[in-house]
Amino acid sequence: MKNRTLKICRVVVSVIIMAMVTLLWVEYSALLLNALGWIERIQIIPGSRGFSFGILVFWWLFTSLFGRIYCSSICPLGTLQDIVARVGRSSRQGSRRDYHYSPPLTTLRYTSLAIIIACLIGGLTLLPTVVDPYSIYTRSVVDLLKPVWGCINNLLAKAGTADQISDKLQQHGVLVLAKPFTGVQFRQAVQMAAACCRRLDYLRQENDKLRDKIAQIRLVDRAKCYLIEHKGMSEAEAHRMIEKTAMDTRRDRAEVAAEILEEE
User: Fold this and answer.
1) pTM
2) What digits encode the pLDDT tens for the residues 76-88?
């Protein structure tokens, strides 16, 4: 009876933590970030990336005393694996329902552990992040469940909600279209948004060109000032000298000006 109660408690805690992690990563707003952000901070690999030595020591001691409680309860991927294994076992009949013994791959386990520890100590976080069960689960949630969650939100959102969030989202470039709308209205809104996006890209490119032009003019002016102060030239002579050098060497005036300033 006692073991059954402990098992039920573990299952309940595992499912709750898995649900909280899922909500933390599928929710588009920051409402749950402050309330549930602590879940990521107690995970082993995210804690290690943040150089939280206390998290590592805590889970090492806790696992030594109570076994694989981290993998089966705190890590959402471990909980998902237990659920899948339970469902798979329930769907099998006869002796196929039973688990079979397989020898532990001790060498592979400790070699993998040593490589992960070496990467974390050396600051190489790519490999630990790729194989980290928590990171694998969160990437799956973001790639698979978050788009579905967004569609459900869009379907359940009330028409008046658009007016409430429009001002907050438009400053981030998000187009808000209130329901109900027809297919023609939706296509027109998307076409208008695409046209605005292309116009903004064009203006951004023009702005970058103007910035580069201004930077070149400033560089040439600095070179002129150097020639006037240190070479005794007049402004016209300095201007002609830069222009002539640029034409003779087939280079941009900014390159000539930068070469002159290197003499400082």
Assistant:
1) 0.55
2) 888 888 888 888 7
What pLDDT score does 162 carry? Answer: 66
CB 199 within 8 A of CB 193: no
In one-letter notation, the amino acid at residue 176 is: V
**DSSP count for the chain of H helices, then E strands:** 15, 0
Q: Exposed e or buried b for every residue in 109-135, given b needs 16+ CB within 10 A?
A: eeeeeeebeebbeeeeeeebbeebbbb
Q: Among 65-69, 112-116, 216-220, 250-254, whose mean pLDDT is lowest?
A: 65-69
Least Cα distance to 157 among 179, 183, 132, 126 occurs for 179
How many angstroms separate the first and last alpha carbons of the chain? 86
User: Amino acid identity, residue 137?
Assistant: Y
Residues 6+ apart with CB under 8 A from 220: 242, 253, 254, 257
What percentage of the chain's residues is helix, strand, coil (to nearest 5)? 80, 0, 20
DSSP state of 98: S
Rounded Cα distance between 1 and 133, Å, is 32
For 209, the enclosing helix (H) or strand (E) is helix 183-230
